Amino acid sequence: MAERRPTMRELIQRRRRFVGRRQEMAAFRENFAVPPEDAAHHFLFHVRGDAGVGKTTLLRQLENTAREHRALTASVDESVNSVPEVMAAISAQFAQAGHPLKSFDKLLATYRQRRHEADAAAQQPAAPQPPEGAAGGPQPSASSAFAVRAGLVGLGMVPGVGALAGAAEPDRVAQAADRARAKLSARLRSHDDVDLVMSPLDALTPAFLRDVGEVAAAVPWVAWFFDTYERTGPLLDLWLRDVMFEGRYGSLPANAVVTLAGQGTLAPRCWADYADLVVDLPLVPFTEAEARQLLMAKGVADEQVIEVVLRLTGGLPVLVSMLAEARPTTPEAVGDPSGTAVERFLKWVSDETHRSVALAAALPRRLDEDVFAAAVGEEAAELYGWLRSLPFVADGSGRCRYHEVVRTAMLRLQRNQSPQAWRARHLRLADAFAGWQREIEESLEGDEKWEHERWLDCRLEEAYHRLCANPEAALRDELRAYLGVYLDHASVSWERRWMRMLLEVGRDCGVESVRAWGERFLAGSNVSEVATTMTLLIDEVGQDERALATAFALRSTARAHMDELEGALADAERALELDADSDRAHAARGYTYLGMERYEQALESLDRALELDPDSAWALSQRGEVNSLLGRFEEALADLTRSCDLDDGSAWTVSTRGLVHHAIRDYDSALADFTRALEIRPKWAWAHAERAATYRMLGRYEESLADAERSIELGSDHAGFSHIHALRNLDRYEEAISAADGYLASHPDDQGALAERGEAYRMTDRFQEALADFGRAIEIEPSYVFALVRRGQTYQHIGRLGEALADFDTALSADPDDAWVPANRGALRLRLGEDKAALADLDRALGLDPDDLQALEARARCHRRAGRYAEAATDLERAAALDGQDLDIAFEHAMLVSRTAGVAEARERWIAFEALLEEHGGQWDAQARVAAPIVSRAALGDGAGADRFVAELTATRPYWEIVDDVIRALDDLAQCPGADPTSLATLRAPLAELRASLDHGRTALG
What we know:
The protein is mostly helical. The chain is built from 52 helices and 7 strands. The strands form 2 sheets. The protein has a 5-stranded parallel beta sheet, with helices on both faces. The chain starts with 7 loop residues before the first helix and ends in a 9-residue tail after the last helix.
């Protein structure tokens, strides 16, 4: 059933009840006249201002305005405690308006049922997971493995203190969501059900947005309103940003408008990138004209009365409205200007019992009938309905709360008037909440209470009231509970609620020490602050050994993360003195030993930690890294895979597994891991860089370049090498040189970047610059094989063959198992006429890599020149089977047929070679594409054509090696049956002169 449209009379009444805020109303109203496709249309409004300034009232009026424009609306306030609850509230309101979200509601019902089943499964032990192994391979360096940890403070990699503003996560994640996945897999019906419970946003939000999109197509506008956003923002920020702007789950329809109302500005860390899309509507107290308008609308017309109200309220809308509700007719009726705020609020409550009830009911943070009765006593419990009618009490769904301005004043009055009564009332409320917890526990087993929302609410309120009653003693108890209980059992979201509760206690009771702890916990956004907080906790919790052990263990991990390794080790040892069976302390010591590169000791400590808690995802991930550093890749993959099974939301763990897969050259698996890490954290520059490196190893240079550029865009230089490498392999040599120039300006001793720039220089025939870069790279790392071989090739290009041979010798000593090195040395020795040594090198290369095309071609040439034609043919057939379009193989095949069957019989081979050169000339540089036809034209009897190519080659000022190759090929051709040695000698002569002119300091060996 569609929502009924308001009548004219109803609209007029609404407008008369609301005064002021004309500019804000106009900005919102006019937005509905602008189509979403117009750049002037706005999707997000933010109403902000101090308590009592009228945000909620304005928000309600904005919702009325949206409805006047036939918008389908929904509103949410701080009564919601999770994003699924937000979606459920919106869905319920849409359904009431005749637009149900049917598919979402069905999935939501499934979620709630599965969540109930998950609660029942919470205490059952998880079935062991079979580890996955992999073959061993090359061991990564310690520096590359530790690079994974660099910069991860922001990701939250210190275990056990995850609620400290996201500064940490793993250990507790392993004991909560991580451990739950393994348990749920055996309990729930399918993997989809497990995902639904473990990652409800990933499952529910796409369905929610699809249904909202369908509904939005049937109405002009959809409008959402979020009140008290200063409270719900930390819960909703990321989700709301994702559905509005980033498309992680889908997207809101274009005709949706969202309005937020809260006390402060939006969190920059979440909204900074979209600040230009937010319409900011800051509210200030009423002007005198606006306050007068409200008073007149309420029937307050006496000028003297108005003057008193203006003086008492300072224009704060909530106070103006409250005083106007009683319609005072004389200044005396308003009250003494020097009277307290509470006296003004209760001015017209004459019954003393009612006044006492109103004051007592201000103590709880939230009210329902049960809490009200506990606050005021059973004898006054029937006054709950009267309380809900007071102008400063907001009511909703049977629960209510005081306006913050009013409650603050009432709390201050009671605290100052009678400290003993204040303490007694709070203790009575604390005892009531403790009793309700015990009642709930009767139907639960073990630690199931930590999954029970009502029990958790009661636990939080009990703590609030005990802190208000006796701040110093209760604070110490709460801090001990935080270290000894909450970290092991409570969710991160509940811990953050607990921290915000500390802030509220400090504010409501005027106790700086409690407020400071709340601020300290919530501000702990980096590991240094976590370490400081643990130090303060150590001083605060007294002789509670378990709490102290936890604090020392957490400080140990934080210090290790900051490379304060000796201090970290001392803290871990102290924690174990206090509690020898603390899995957290053993894990912290293992993590510290890992940082010290004392891997065997790290392994011993992590083994013990996992004996105590086999489901610690963080300890498993750390042991996985230790095993990888010890070259135990099968064990590393087993640990990391098990850790990922427990916590498939840990970008750190899955990326570490990616490093191990990369180390054993399982690049496809590495790619999958880095991609998963980026699904979890899309803006992680390091993971983009590592995926770029993996794409590079797979030869997927376009994708490597895209990831490298994204990493650089995100502010990291970790992908500098991959960026240069990808550009160079895409033949974008000038861009590669420019990128290398920029990178080397800040990393002048990066041998990889130097070698890549050298290679770009080599490929553009800038040989002296290439030699300089390769030389500098080799100075930095004398056994750098890539630079040695490329410098050897560069020396060969310019005819400095002795120096080339020396570089190939050094490279082979540095890496005897790389087929590329003996293949290059064998080809050079063949040029030098050392046929026997050349054959030995080429045999060695093909023993290491039977599919090395360079070695197969060079060995075929070696066999041909030695008259071993059958062996030459075998190598060429093998090479052609591997790549039938390789130009070097086609050229050598034509030469072999010319030598064995004669030039005339080889004609078809030479014609086929020229056709292949025309089609795939990009395999060679421009000079080689001119040089090779000199030989093929000569073989085909086209002397004039060969002469033209000689002239063209001479004009290009070729490098020495290319001319030498042509001369050697012509000499080989001259020995073939049917060749014309005289014409070939004539063709050779200018080339020999050209080669002689290009000799640049060749050694005698050359």
